[in-house]
Amino acid sequence: MIYNNMGRALGDLEKIAEEIKTCKKCPLHNNRINAVPGEGNHSCGVMLIGEAPGFNEDLQGRPFVGAAGKLLDELMGDVGISRGMVYITNVVKCRPPGNRQPRDNEVKVCTSLYLDRQIAIINPKLIVCLGNISSKYIFNKYGLKFKNMSEVHGKIHRIISLHGELKIIATYHPAAILRNPKLIEEAKMDWKTIGEAIRSICKKTPQQ
């Protein structure tokens, strides 16, 4: 389904957000303060998809607002990209206890109920996968092979469908860079590629 009516798309994204906020379909809801549906520009055609909310995201109900979010803003800003140009969300919408990785059953439930529907509504021209969990899910969804981040990061993968061309780019999760600062130079090179791709898609789309 392609959403040519942006008002309808926004309404449907808001409906999904309300479902997410009250969701009890997997054990992650037991410990959350706030679910984190996602936010940003739904009309430009660019999605940034991370792994899961962390401590600060759980407190605020917004994606990438902690230290990793600050680094993400810096990486985007360095290549002339702002949050107003993209839609940001995560594979799972509730914080896993202790910031552990989401489990396979949690990913399966959350993606089938929410992320896949968000992708269908936004109909992105570019998906930027932030980290291994996101990359593994999105690559598998579109029939691409994902071995590890070191092999695929920064490369543009093109998918041709009935809805047109979709570009997929994987890069390091900002939290991984904070844990291993040696990754920052590779990440900056990735973001040069990502920035060019985002600008080419969004150049005719007003920022929100």
Q: TL;DR of this structure?
A:
With 208 residues, this protein is an alpha/beta fold. The protein has eight helices and six strands, in the order H-E-E-H-H-E-H-E-H-H-E-E-H-H. The chain has helices at residues 6-21, 55-60, 67-78, 104-122, 132-141, 149-152, 174-179, 184-202; strands spanning 39-40, 46-50, 87-90, 126-130, 156-161, 164-171.
Give your account of this protein's structure:
This protein has one domain (about 5-200): Uracil-DNA glycosylase-like domain (Uracil-DNA Glycosylase, subunit E, 3-Layer(aba) Sandwich). The model has no long low-confidence stretch (mean pLDDT about 95). It has eight helices and six strands; from the N terminus they run αββααβαβααββαα. Strand 5 and strand 6 (about 165-170) form a beta hairpin. It has helices at about 5-20, 55-60, 65-80, 105-120, 130-140, 150, 175-180, 185-200; strands at about 40, 45-50, 85-90, 125-130, 155-160, 165-170. By secondary structure, the chain is of the alpha/beta class.
Set out the fold topology.
Blueprint: H1 6-21, E1 39-40, E2 46-50, H2 55-60, H3 67-78, E3 87-90, H4 104-122, E4 126-130, H5 132-141, H6 149-152, E5 156-161, E6 164-171, H7 174-179, H8 184-202
Parallel strand pairs: 2-3, 2-4, 4-6
Antiparallel strand pairs: 1-3, 5-6
Could you state the order of secondary-structure elements as H and E?
A: HEEHHEHEHHEEHH
Query: Whole-number average pLDDT?
Result: 93
User: What's the structural domain tally?
Assistant: 1
Task: Provide the CATH superfamily.
Answer: Uracil-DNA glycosylase-like domain
CATH class: Alpha Beta
Radius of gyration: 16 Å
Would you identify the regions where 5 or more consecutive residues have pLDDT less than 50? none
For the sheet with most strands, the description reads: 6 strands, mixed
Structure annotation, total helices: 8
- Counting helices, strands and paired strands, the structural category is alpha/beta
Globally, the shape reads globular
Using DSSP, what is the number of strands?
A: 6
Largest sheet, spatial ordering of strands? 1-3-2-4-6-5
Helix content: 40-55%
Rounded to the nearest angstrom, the distance between the terminal CA atoms is: 24 Å
| Binned strand content | 5-15%
- Examine the coordinates and then state which fold CATH places here, giving the name of the CATH topology: Uracil-DNA Glycosylase, subunit E
What is the CATH architecture annotation? 3-Layer(aba) Sandwich
